[in-house]
Amino acid sequence: MNDNILGLGLLRQPKSVLFGPGQRRQLPYIAKSIASSVLIVTDARMAASETFHEIRHSLEDHGIAVSVYAETEPDLPRENILAVVNRYAHGTASCAIDAVIGIGGGSCLDLAKVCAVALVNQHDVRDYYGEFRVPAPGLPVITVPTTGGTGAEVTCISVVYDRDKGMKLGIASPHLEPYAAVIDPELTLTCPPGLTAATAADALSHLVEAFTARAKNPTPEEIDTKLYAGKNRLTDLFAGQGLALLNTSLARVIDSPGDIAARADVMFAAYCAGMAINTTGTAGAHAIQSPMATYCDAPHGFGVGALLPYIMRFNLPSRVEAFAEMGRIFGVAQASQSTLEQAQAAILRVEALLETARAPLDLKSIGLKPEQFDAIADQAMQATRLLANNPRTLTKQAIVAILQKGYEGDRSWWEIA
Q1: pLDDT attached to residue 315
Q2: Measured between alpha carbons, how far is residue 98 from residues 37, 119, 157, 284, 412 in Å?
């Protein structure tokens, strides 16, 4: 259904969200209300930083015992989860841990959320792949993002790379919802330029997919059993705000990485994107990018960004009004233009923002090859939860055509039969 005729408003969100420069200093006060001993999961780069030591010492100064796992890898391999569970779910090391704090990018935050349930339920993480398969709540989780892009700080979804299966798999459950998110833009000031650009492209893709997602008008039973309830009035509120913020702040943060106001706006846009996709879900670009990652090592944000021009063109016939509204949010749609022209202006603006982030806009430049298209399309068709969110039905033939257009960099307006 393309129109949200019920006017539903639905959000899934943490109990508390604290946003603003310097707000990481509130972390020990939040933590001590729920824990006397915490496990911090992060990566080696963050763990070696002065800021991390400041955070750790502030927790300890408030009487909180701290354990640290600092071996998180990009794209969160399943082995990281097994390592945490093996280290902390057995023997005396686990007895005192009563909360998990994730500090870092999306993989660190996803690891914190999954480990919090795995430490309590003690299943193989493979038992959780899919939707509503986590059997019971885990330890409370506090998320502290250090990048402005993934939105993982507020979502009840984690993505795991399973090497044996050769693909990324999602875990979607209300039990993964963080207890609190502490979002401090100062933590992004040391984010490398390439990572800043890739995560910004990821946030932009989330916002576009959320704003143009399918409106499902779910039944009460579906709301109770499905995380992705579709585009609705409340998700549009967050997605629209996030698009407006990225429209004015993305160029500033790329040109002046030390601009804390620009960093704050980009990080707030990423938070808005997380709030939106927590209910709408992501869609076609993410369904296709996941198997693409097996064949090229481009960062996730650049992968979905490179797909976005072509999936937007594919979806345009089913979302002309939504894209036109996006054009008005961006300030690029003129009242004298037709609705279709306003919609096309929005798509061109998204591409301009990706170019501003120095993100690749074709698939050849990130290493994809035509002989891989068929296998990628087969795997993408298995991402049924994401495909169900796409506003226009995606078939294997359509996915192959999108990949071909993306490989050729053909950004003319086109139709797929």
Answers
A1: 96
A2: 6, 10, 21, 38, 54
**Could you tell me if residue 12 is inside a domain?**
no
End-to-end CA distance of the chain: 20
Q: Which of 7-11, 202-206, 282-286 has the lowest mean pLDDT?
A: 7-11
Opening angle at CA 309, ends 151 and 147, nearest 5: 25
- Domain count within the chain: 2
Same domain, 169 and 200: no
CB contact at 8 A, 84 and 69: yes
pLDDT band with cut points at 50, 70 and 90 for residue 109: very high
Comparing 123 with 205, the larger pLDDT belongs to: 205
* E strand or H helix at 157: strand 157-162
Question: What pLDDT does residue 90 have?
Answer: 59
Whole-model pTM: value is 0.94
pLDDT of residue 294: 86
Domain residues for the domain of 86 are 23-183
Q: Given the structure tokens 């050849």, which residue do they identify?
A: 364
Of the candidates 183, 203, 236, which is a domain's last residue?
183
Pair (219, 243) in one structural domain? yes
Long-range contacts of 373-381 (CB under 8 A, 24+ apart): 373/400, 373/403, 373/404, 373/407, 374/400, 375/291, 376/288, 376/291, 376/292, 376/295, 376/403, 377/288, 377/403, 379/167, 379/290, 379/291, 379/294, 380/287, 380/288, 380/290, 380/291
CATH of residue 362's domain is 1.20.1090.10
Max alpha carbon distance in the chain (Å)?
Answer: 70
pLDDT in the model for residue 6? 53
Note the pLDDT of residue 373.
Answer: 97
The answer as to whether 358 is a domain residue is yes
Does the pLDDT at position 267 exceed 50?
A: yes
On whether the CB atoms of residues 179 and 141 are closer than 8 A, the answer is yes
